[in-house]
Each structure stands twice: as C-alpha cells, then as structure tokens.
Amino acid sequence: MATEKSNINSSATHCFHCGEANPSDTLFSVTIKGEDKRMCCPGCEAVAQTIVDSGLTSYYDHRSETAEKGASLVPEQLTQLAHYDLEQIQEEFVKKSEHLSEITLTVEGITCAACAWLIEKQLRQLAGLQFINVNTTLHRVVIRWDNDKLKLSAILAEMQKVGYKAYPFQINQQEALYTKQAKSYLRRLGLAGIATMQVMMFAIALYADLFFGMEEEFIHYFRWVSFILATPVLLYSAQPFYINAWRNIRNRTLGMDIPVSIALLGAYIASAYATVMETGEVYFEAISMFTFLLLLGRLLELRARRKASETSSNLLRLLPSMATLIEQDTESLIPAKTLTIGQVILVKAGETIPVDGTILTGISNIEESMLTGEHLPVHKGEDSPVFAGTVNVTSPLTIRVEKLAQNSLIADIIHLQDSAQQNKPHIEVVADLVSRYFVGALLITALCTYIGWRFIDPDQAFWITLSVLVATCPCALSLATPTALTCATANLNKQGILIKQHHVLETVNKIEHMVFDKTGTLTHGDFVLLNTTLHADFSKQLCIDLASQLERVSEHPISLAFNLLQRDSISLSEVINIPGQGLQATYQDKQLKLGHAQFCAINYPLNSKELVIYLTLGDQLIASFELGDTLRKSAQKISQYCQQSNIETTLLTGDISAKSEEVATLLNLDHVTKGVTPEGKLDHLKALQATQQVLMVGDGINDAPVLAGAHVSVALASGTDVAKNSADVILLGEDLTKIVTLRKTAQKTTTIIKENLGWAIGYNLIIVPLAITGHVPPYIAVIGMSFSSLIVVSNSLRLLK
After folding, report:
1. CB within 8 A of 200, min separation 6: which ones?
2. What is the β-pairing status of strands 648-652 and 165-168?
3. Is there a single domain that holds both residue 516 and residue 372?
4. What's the Cα-to-Cα distance from 624 to each of 397, 564, 602, rounded to whole Å?
C-alpha cells in the first residue's frame, strides 16, 4: 500500500503522476519499480497505487506527458476496464441470474497447463468469485461471480496483474486475435528461417575446419558473422518464450517455456563468450534452428487449436447482421442486434432467420440442420417457433421476436459447449498436475546431467544439458485430454447433441442399463383425443373446456390435445399441478380433478389400450378421456442397439394404463415399471445404480429428479425447461439414435485420450534417458519436442470428422 515514508528523496519537488508541485507539508508516495515516487495529494497516490496493483506500471514508461488532474488521472487501460461494468455493455456478453453473473473471456498468452493453473490460482483469491475454469485448448476462461461483491473490471484488472490480457469472447475479436497471433508467429518465423539458413552456411564452413584446417582469422570472422545473425533471432524471434517464462517466474510457477528459455539464453551466452574470448565452441546455428523449429511447432499448434474451436465460431457466423423490421406497415433494414422483444420482422424465402421468434403469418419449410444435424427441412406455420441461424426455404414469413441474441438457442448451444469444459474429468486433472511438477523435475534432471557430464566429458556437458532441456515435452501431456474433449464436444454439437458436463464422455461408454420415460420420449407426445365418455349430466364440450382450463398450467404434452378443442374459458381457482399425478382446482366450490385413476380415486378404471385420464368433480366421475399417441421411429432403433450391445432396458413411466405394456412389447424392452411418482422414479433409479451404470432418458417435469440423479441423463430439446436443466445431455430434434452416436463418440474419445497420454508419456520416457546419455543432438531434441505436442493435437482433430 501507499504510505508516507521518511526515506523519500525530498528533492522530488513535482508529483511523479501529474507533474504538479508537491506541497512542502505533505509526504505522499507510491513505490514504483522499487523506487519511492513523491505524489502531490491522496488522489494521485490512490490512482498511482491502483496502476501498480493492476500490473500497468509500463504506463509510466511509455507516457508522453504527465497525467492531468481530475477524471483523467487514470490511464486509458484502467478506464477501458471500468467501462465493462456498465449494464448496457454487459448485456451483449454477460449471462445474469439473481445474484450471479457469468462470462466467457478470451485470454491472450496461454501456452500450457501451468498458465491455466496460475490464472485460476490467482483469481480464486478475489472475494466474490464463485467459479473459474481455463480452457488451454480454446484460450478461453469461464468465470462466475457474485454481483454484489465483485465487479467485472476488477476481474479483468487482476488478470492483467498476473500478466494475461483478457476480454469478453466475441467472434470478431477472436478472429482478429488469431490473425494477429498468426502474423506475429510468421514474422518471427521468417526472421528465424532466414537467419538459420545463413548461419548454417557459416557453420558448415566451421565444421569443415575439423577436416581440412582453416586459418584463425577466417574462423573468428565466421563466428562473428554468425553471432551478428543469431542475435536478432534470440532477441526478437524467441521473445514469446522469454515473456511466458518471465510471467511464470514472477508468479512463482513453472511452465514449459522456462527450460526452453534457459536453453536458448545459455547457448547464446556461452557462444558469445566463446566468440569474444576466441576460445571454446559456438552454437549459433543451433540457437537459430531451435527457435525456428519451436516457432513452427507453435504456429502449427495454433492452427490446430483454431480448428478445434471452429464449431462455435461457425455457428455465430450464421447469424445475419441485418434484419427487415416491420413497423406501421413499413419495412426498414436495421442491425439485427438492435431488435427488441415483441418487434415484428420479415424473413423472405432463402434468408437466414436472425432471432428466435414465433411465426405470425406464413407457411414455409425451415432448414434447421445447423442446430439439429438433420438436413430435411421442417414444415412450420403460424404460432410455430423458429430459431436464429436457421434458413427460411420456401415462403416469406413475418416473425415476432421472442428472445434477444444473448438468450437465443445458438447462444445457449455455445454456452453449453463452454459449460462442458467447466468440470474437468479426473484424468485431465491428474494430467495437469503431473505436467506442472514435470517442469520442476526436468530442471533438476538437467542440473544433475550438467554436473555429471562435467566429470565425464566437460566439453560435452553444456551440449547434452541443452538437449535434455529442449527434448522433454510436458506440453504434450497437458494437451492430451483437453484437446480430445474439445474436439469431441464440437463434433457432437454439429450433430445436435449438446454436452453439458464433461464427465459424460467418460461415463457414457460404461453404461450397462438404459431407462426410458414413455410419453414424449419413446412416443412423440403429440396426443389426440380419441374418445370422450360422459359419466354425469355434463355436456361433452363443458368437460373438454374444464379439462383444457386445468391443463393450461401444465407443460405436459397432454395439454395440447385439449387446448385445440377448447371453446369457452372457465374460471377456476386454486389450480395445482401435481407432477406424475394430475391437476386439481376449485370449481363451483368443489374440488375438480384431472388425472389417472388412482389420483382421481377411480376404483374401476376403463379397460383400454390407450392412455385414459379421468375428470372428477367432488366425489363424482363426470368424464373419461382416451388419448392416442404414436411411437417415435427412432425408438425401435435405440432398442435394437441396446439389445445388440447387451444393455438392459427399462420403461419407467407414471402412466398406469395398458399402453405402457404395449409400448414395451413393441420395442422388446426388458422391464416395465409404470404408475410411479417422480420420487418413485428416483428410488427405482437409485436401486439400479447400486449395481449398474445407468443412463436415463426423459423430457417432462416429473423426470427432473431422476434426470438429476442418474449417472448420465439425456433430455430432448422438445421437453420441459426443468428436464433440460436437470440433464447432462440435450438432444436437438427427435432422433433417439443420437444416443448411439454419443456413445460411439465417447468410446472413440476415450481411445484417443489413451493414445495421446500413451504417446506423451512414452515419448518422454524414451527421450529423456537418451538425451541424458548424449545420444540426442540438440536439433533432434527440438524437433521431437515441437512435434510431440503437434502429434497430440493432430490426433485429437480426428474426432472432428
């Protein structure tokens, strides 16, 4: 903290921050780069201390004039961060709940697991931070914080203090960052490549001296020219390695760029000494070649990582930038992101729909393959929902805006993809931990190698130590799991399978038992009223109107069968929805019930193969309804897959009708448990999970508890919001065979992770002993290290196919 110090140089008559005269009766100061700087007032002192605490002391190195008094005391970097706290700016990229906010940030400078660990460790110290997870593959970080205790600007400032620049993830900025990084690598790579070719020419001449002899002045001349050519390579091309190494050292952590930097600087200093003192060996060609190959590996790795993150980027690119707004019978073209809920837009045939909304007028086919992975257009008419990014194929539509861009289905898909990275699988946690300690072990090994070879062959000690430092590759170990998981998640998203939890890809290939809900899962849930039987002196239409009025508070698919037939609205009070049982309300001072036989106290239920529900008023049965539903085409296929894979199947439903046995028989399911409450479903699941790995598939409110309790749970996108929030996986579309795709992808992912870890561990176990014993020349060591991580990333990219 800034304090008044007695040892401050009294000759400092002007404020270091604003340049105004320092009052003689005050002694305000801030320690900047180890020196106490005088300030004129508490305001300058506070601002300067904030700049220092935010890691922005470089402001004082590069400023062209002193700061002004007042609002402009704070440098531009900090005022820009403060802007991120404004509500209207956060609307575009911050998801908010009652007290918590969540954001996905793009972070510059992440190179390995050590960077992720450092960022997470430092930011977790902030009061109010609830969650943080860094994705080393995508260079993104997901952060959740308490709005009342912490500001976004404070999070970004802390990130800069650690040494990383971060800003909200937006596709345009992400593309600009990639282009900037790629150009930077290409410039450094170009310089290193040109210098390497030139230095190698002189190196060949120097090596030729071993066989033919060469005059001393030529040897010294070639060495000095090599020294001059290698210097810009070391100072410019290799700069990213030093920056990352210094960041790690400053924050007291170990990263893979530390041994690389030690090797490069050690080789350069030793070669420079040999050149100036005209004694010993020079390694300028090795320095240039090391840098060139390391940069080439980083560039290829950057492109591979970009490939892995393309799916979410491509989804965002599908959104049109402009929309045709209809106001007072006039059409105007406006930016799509300025649309508000309730506005009406026109989407012509062939155009992409810019927002999530509801069709007001028009009938058309909508191409939704970018969401569901199913390429057949979907026929939609009035009151049908449509989604941003889908294509209106045949006819013009007028659409009412229902959701803003940040709450659209595409935004949810991308958010789910990022959320899937939040909970790291156990295997990834272990790999990250091992890779962090690996660097420390490497430095100790290199030191022991140098000491040992000083006794065996002093001339070779430095050269062999260099090989040990460069050959080993902790980066491949830390990339083995996250790159595979990221690629697998991206591929599944393309096929309409949204992963919410990363453990899914670890657990789903261990599944021994699949449990299915019936209505809306194995069946379409598009109920049709087949027959109405009256049991009292009530008209058929009144019974239908009463049932429809009750169903208005329910999200169950049964409600659709009645809502379309209702004619008159009826006043009901104290309406209660009891999931898995039915609905009840007060009508004419009596209790009105609609539900299955047990809920309505029907002792002699109708004998029907269809679903039957009953309507009672008081103790009197007034009507019964038979409802028809059809099986999904994919239900038979998923059942056959389970049989072929020796996976047990159970139909677990709240329906007590004979329809349950009929569905189980048609699908050849192993077990049927019907007429169970949501609590009963959960108890049944727990009993199964005591001995087996279980996957649960459901869609309704009554499935929420059992979905939340299953080892792996799957919900359909057509299901209730409660079910989707409780599930680990969401299937877009109606194809249940996507569960098969999920399982096969999970199995392939597990195989590739094992291959990646096997390669990373095997490579290091082989290369380290060879390097220590002097069998790996430095140029072979750098090639091995660069391509080791590249092989891991390239192997993971197979999951995108």
Report:
1. 285, 288, 289
2. unpaired
3. no
4. 40, 18, 11
DSSP conformational letter for 370: H
DSSP 416-473: HHHHTTTS--HHHHHHHHHHHHHHHHHHHHHHHHHHHHHHH-HHHHHHHHHHHHHH--
CB 159 within 8 A of CB 107: yes
Q: Which among 342, 347, 344, 340 has a CA at the least distance from the CA of 330?
A: 344
Would strands 378-380 and 364-367 be described as parallel, antiparallel, or unpaired? Answer: antiparallel
What distance in Å separates the CA atoms of residue 238 and residue 266, rounded to the nearest whole number?
13
The Cα–Cα gap between 392 and 368 comes to 9
Are 21 and 103 members of one domain? no
Percent of the chain with pLDDT over 70: 79
Q: Which residue has the higher pLDDT, 782 or 69?
A: 782
Q: Which of 130-139, 465-474, 508-517, 652-661 has the highest mean pLDDT?
A: 508-517
Q: Is 569 helix (H, G, I), strand (E, B) or coil?
A: coil
Structural tokens at position 370: 């970018």
> What gap in Å lies between CA 347 and CA 367, rounded to an integer?
13
Among the three residues 571, 588, 623, which one is the final residue of a domain in this structure? 623
Q: Over the chain, what is the mean pLDDT?
A: 78
Alpha carbon of residue 319 to chain centroid: 20
Domain membership of residue 506 (yes or no) is: yes
Residue-range definition of the domain harbouring residue 675 = 502-523+631-727
Q: What does the alpha-carbon distance between residue 391 and residue 353 come to, in Å, rounded to a whole number?
A: 6
R_g of the chain computed on alpha carbons: 34
**Two structure tokens written together for 298:** 């980083």
Dihedral of the CA atoms 72, 78, 79, 85 (nearest 10)? -150
pLDDT at residue 9 greater than cutoff 60:
no
DSSP code, position 407: G
In a domain, 23, yes or no: yes
**Residue closest to 745 by CA, chosen among 516, 495, 514, 423:** 495
What are the strands of the beta sheet with 513-516, ordered from one edge? 497-499, 729-731, 712-716, 694-698, 513-516, 648-652, 671-673
* 334 within domain boundaries: yes
Beta carbons within 10 angstroms of residue 43's beta carbon: 15
**591 in the same domain as 722:** no
Q: Does residue 204 contact residue 285 with C-beta atoms inside 8 Å?
A: no
Secondary structure of 761-789 in HEC code, one letter for each residue: HHHHHHHHHHHHCCCCCHHHHHHHHHHHH
Per-residue pLDDT, 641: 92
What contacts 793, CB < 8 A, 6 or more positions away?
301, 304, 305, 308, 479, 483
> What distance in Å separates the CA atoms of residue 544 and residue 541, rounded to the nearest whole number?
5
Spell out the long-range contacts of 293-296 with Cβ–Cβ below 8 A and sequence spacing 24 or more: 293/779, 293/782, 293/783, 293/786, 294/238, 294/241, 294/260, 294/782, 294/785, 294/786, 295/185, 295/188, 295/189, 295/192, 295/237, 295/240, 296/189, 296/786
Residue 474 and residue 292: Cα distance in Å, rounded? 20
Domain presence at residue 301 = no
pLDDT value at residue 230? 87
Record the tokens describing residue 749, joined without a space.
Answer: 């992912």
Confidence (pLDDT) at 321: 73
Distance CA 220, CA 765 (A): 40
Kindly list the distances between the CA atom of residue 56 and the CA atoms of 102, 115, 168, 175, 612, in Å, as whole numbers in the listed order.
26, 19, 20, 26, 71
Residue matched to tokens 């007001």: 360
Of 170-174, 224-228, 375-379, 396-400, give the lowest mean pLDDT range.
170-174
Q: What is the dihedral of CA 264, 269, 274, 277, to 10 degrees?
A: 170
- Where is pLDDT greater, at 539 or 69? 539
Q: In sequence order, what are the residues at sequence separation of 6 or more whose Cβ sits closer than 8 angstroms to the Cβ of residue 267? A: 283, 286, 287, 290, 462, 466, 778
